[in-house]
Amino acid sequence: MEYLFLAVAVLLITAGQVMQKLASDKVAGQGPGQSIFLRFALNVEFWIAIGCLGLGTLVWLLTLSSMEVSKAYPMLSLSFVLTTIIARVHLKESVSPVRWIGVCLICAGAALMSGA
Amino acid sequence: MVTKSTARLLIIASLVLTTAAQLMFRLGMQTSGLHEVFSHAGELDLLGWLLSPAALVVIGGIACYGVSLLCWVVAISRFELSVAYPLLSLSYISVYAIAVYWPGFGEQASITKLLGIGLIMLGVTLVATSSYKPAAPASSQA
Question: Which of the 8 DSSP states describes residue B133?
Answer without folding.
Answer: -
